[in-house]
Design brief:
The protein is an alpha+beta fold and 122 residues long. 40% of the residues lie in helices and 19% in strands. It has a four-stranded mixed β-sheet, covered by helices on one side.
Length: 122
């Protein structure tokens, strides 16, 4: 991961450190969260086979209309609830949370809380 700025390099270092300890399986996949300045993305990944089992983001077509007038953290909570619903459809009840090098607060925490509200177990 070639990064030129200090913030990006620090996040890449934290991400590598986290991924050494975390791995998703078919029974307990990894819920990975990525946060950009404008959007938030969540994926449920089986690392053994390298397959994305479910995904949701603020750019998802079904969420676009529901996000009008909402703050970023409220939108992140909706993404968490959506990813939980998609996991329930595929009978996934338990996941490992991967914050992807981001600090666990704000929008990242809102995704986790929304997923918990939707019924996912961490």
């Amino acid at each position: 991961m070639a990064t030129t700025n200090k913030k990006g390099a620090a996040r890449a270092r934290r991400k590598r450190s986290i991924r050494k300890r975390l791995s998703g399986t078919a029974q307990r996949p990894r819920l990975s969260v990525f946060r950009s300045n404008k959007h938030i993305y969540a994926q449920v990944i089986d690392d053994v086979t390298g397959v994305t089992l479910a995904a949701a983001s603020t750019q998802s077509e079904e969420l676009r209309g529901a996000l009008d007038g909402k703050k970023k953290s409220e939108a992140a909570a909706l993404v968490g609830q959506t990813i939980a619903a998609r996991c329930k459809e595929k009978s996934i009840e338990s996941v490992v949370f991967d914050r992807n090098g981001f600090i666990y607060h704000g929008r990242v925490k809102a995704v986790a809380d929304g997923a918990r509200e939707g019924g996912l177990i961490f």
